Amino acid sequence: MDSYTKYLVDNVLSEDKTVTYRLLSRALKVHANTAKQMLYEFHLSQNAKRPGTVHATYLVYGVKKGGNIPKGANEDVEMASSPPYAESVTEVVQSYALSLITEESLKDALAGYEEVSSIHVYSVAPHATKDMGLLADVANEVLSLSTAKDEISVPITNPYVRTRERRGAGLKAAAAPSVPAAKQQAKAPASKAASAASPAEIKEESKAEPGQAIAKAENITKKSTPALKRGGSSGIMAAFSKAAAKPKKDVKTKAEKPSAEDTTMALSDDGEDDEEVEMLKSKPRSTAGTKTKKEREEELRRMMDDDDDDQEQKEEEEEEEEEEEQVKSEKAESPEPEPMEEEPTTGSVEEEKSEVVESSNNGRRRGKRKVMRKKQIMDEQGYLVTIQEPGWESFSEDEAPPPRPATKPKIAVPAPVASKGKKGAAAKGGQGSIMSFFSKKA
Amino acid sequence: MVTLEEVAGLGLLQKPPSNGDAPEPLQRPESNYRPLSTFVLPKERQYQQQFADIYFLRLTKIKPAVEEAAIAAWKNTKIGGEKAKKVERVLDVRQGELCWVAGTVYMDMPLKPSILEDVAKDRWISAPTTLDHYYSEGGQDSVMLEDDSGRIKLVGEAIKNYFLVTGCIIAVLGTENANGEMEVIDLKFADLPPQPARWSLSKPSPRPKDEDVEMTDSPSSGSKKIALVSGLEFSGTSTAYAAELNLLLEFLLGEALDPSVQSELSQISRLIIAGNSIAKQEDAHHGTASDNTKKPHTKKYGYDASSYNPLPSQLLDTFMSELLPTMPVTLLPGTNDPANASYPQQPIHAAMFPKSRTYGGLPQAGEDAEPGWLDMVTNPWEGEVEGWRMLGTGGQNLDDICKYVDSADRLGMMEAMCRWRCSAPTAPDTLWAYPFQDDEPFVMKECPHLYFVGSQPEFGTKVIEGSEGQMVRLVMVPSFAATKEIVLIDTETLDVTRVKISA
């Protein structure tokens, strides 16, 4: 007994199921056309043994009689001369009919055909099929069987088919480092290496160029993509991204000013980087590490396209955000040290101007600092006016870095967490900081 | 007449081959495809503007063509010794003078929904109209011609010979009578716009004769085809035509039927779904007041997420994901589809199709990017397929025009749209539309070779010709749910065949 006969006997006769050619083709892994012939043979042989045991449905394709009868007798030629919108008639077109017909009504149905181009057994069942809707249930079963897109489920292949790369979770993980990389690229024109390594990631994030993305989709499997990115970010890319992130941190601890904004910018992965890059391009700068505090403040101020009010507010919020930032930046794979103890940073002397520390013990700092406060008053005309006025505010916060000369280069400090990317701190010192970073890495 | 004896032993009605060698695999030809972004709206758009600009833009764009046609026709027209002269503005029409003027048609119909009425009655949220038609049998409808200067009522037998709807641009010849109405003697349209040559945007792919001899020898000769289907209406509740949908899938996949037909079917190089892929939501949960009183405890403000049935879009997704490995698909949204309701409808979001979307294009790809294998496009949509310029809609534009005209001649209305050079004249009056400011994309700048309209009650096609030799193939794609019919277009001749599926 052939394997298909056994399958059909089991399913149709014993289990009382309807089997379509698609189901048979997938169950036995044979071509659909072969499956159709198997059904035919099974139907024939079973009914030869005992007539009426198996009922078939047929799929018939051809031209039906009367299908092409014109609906009106008018001609198109007449249309042109008559007023444009007299009743227009549809053209007569070739019309095919694809019908699913039960064995019982096959004879009558065929009589309605003028020409049959194709006929085959569609399904066999132990009972006469009354409701064709039941065959839809079989089709659902077929769906669950055909998971692989092989020749059986795709009988006509298309050599031009293309898909795009899935943007999965792995990509998101890689996203964070890639953004600082983009920034760095703009900041330090010297970092050619970084930019060469990064275009793929940057494109992913912002505007993917289709050709490239498609090429990727073909070559790179889903699994390997994130891996590749990881590799990228832990290498030279990471170095740069961290170096980029670090100086910002630096600014923050020194000036306690606009870094809140800055850090969030570094973290945002919503494609803002384009705009940012543009802005940065407009005023090229040297390596971030060599900036003086003033310059940087100035630049950040301009970058933030905000008026001073906001900036002052930032200053206020800064304190609360400081801790958050640290958590955030750790997430962004540019880990920060735990509160400054092991990694002393340059506490700025200038800061004293706006900040008076009254006591500093038990890891807490208390004091007063100068802030700009917003005040809303109603003027004589009844308008609400917001004014800014300087004021002193007492604060108490976690230990800040002990004051140190701001100019002291940090190269010599061997950071315990060096491998984690603490180097950035060194970078801020200025001279040759980037180089020192590389040498350590190596 | 075919008998059982004739088909016995035919094709696959025989024993399976004992040697078990697989039939020669078939391949589909490449689909040459270049969609245009004519109807793509900017991502950040606002709706603060007035709609009047659409009419203004349309008038400025089409008026020159209308006037040209009018000059050609009426240049030397004399009636009763009086020569017809051109009048620039509608308000310049003088009583008793034979003249002609171009402007926008406005249909004043008592049944037509009116924003003024809504505002007057303090209804700020307008529901989609439920009327079958706007025209009224009593003859209370009137036709106006307007431009930026004013409006004049049109009367006369001549206007009854034409389809006229709000928003189309015409020129009328006549005189103003004592009632201040214009007695129309004749009227003119812009007629078909200039038609680009075939392959004006894309290049034909070289025939793979040299490198692929096998292909040309295989029986899969004949020209490529495009399948057009509309109104698949996948439903979450009804399985009334699930069997037909399955047959359609098997047909397009090339799995059904025998090798000779399969090789014919392998020439179908693209499927275009023209709207209404998802069935209309049953009104069980929202709407009638009786519903609300029945179960007041479940009444919620805003959108009730629990009433959402994801099954229809899942079914559509499955359907497309089965088909996509073998055939590229262009998907236009329609009335019932999950896209914006106003014209032009923007592409259905890829998130609706978790299985199929891997075949889609990249969301931020630029205009020159290669279109996705599954291309979710706007409605209306314009593009070049196999070199032919195509314009297609989900059917709302034609359905809305039909509400103005007491006629079942939908093909005639399609033709009229082409001759008006406007694919959605009734937008924004009765067909909801985006308030365009700078461009009026519904104006047909270039004449399509194929103009299809989806979700129609029945199939219909014809070819219309323009004065400069333009030929437009009009196709009404019937709703699959209603008729179980699909349309195949030959890409060399633009000949149409229809396939009816029954189960």
Topology:
The complex is a heterodimer of chains A (442) and B (503).
Chain A: H1 3-14, E1 19-20, H2 21-28, H3 32-49, E2 55-64, H4 76-81, E3 94-102, H5 106-111, E4 113-125, H6 133-145, E5 156-157, H7 169-187, H8 192-197, H9 199-205, H10 210-219, H11 224-234, H12 236-255, H13 259-267, H14 273-282, H15 293-303, H16 308-331, E6 355-361, E7 364-378, E8 384-398, H17 423-429, H18 433-441
Antiparallel strand pairs in A: 1-4, 2-3, 2-4, 6-7, 7-8
Helix pairs in contact in A: 2-3, 2-6, 7-9, 7-11, 7-12, 7-14, 12-13, 12-17, 13-16, 17-18
Chain B: H1 4-7, E1 26-27, E2 33-36, H2 52-74, E3 78-79, E4 82-83, E5 85-86, E6 99-108, H3 115-120, E7 142-146, E8 151-155, E9 169-176, E10 182-188, H4 213-217, E11 225-229, H5 242-253, H6 259-265, E12 268-274, H7 289-294, H8 311-323, E13 329-332, E14 374-376, E15 381-385, E16 388-393, H9 396-402, H10 410-420, E17 450-456, E18 460-465, E19 471-478, H11 480-483, E20 485-490, E21 496-502
Parallel strand pairs in B: 5-6, 8-10, 11-12, 12-13, 13-14, 16-17, 17-19
Antiparallel strand pairs in B: 2-15, 3-4, 6-7, 6-9, 7-8, 9-10, 11-20, 15-16, 18-19, 20-21
**How can the largest sheet of chain B be summarized?**
6 strands, mixed
The CATH architecture of the largest domain in chain B can be named as 4-Layer Sandwich
By DSSP (H or I, 4+ residues per run), the number of helices of chain B equals 11
**Tally of domains of chain A:** 2
In total, the number of strands of chain B is 21
Low-pLDDT residue spans of chain B: 208-220, 284-296
Biased composition (Low complexity) (chain A): 172-200
Region (Disordered) (chain A): 168-442
Organism (chain A): Cladorrhinum samala
GO molecular function (chain A): DNA-directed DNA polymerase activity
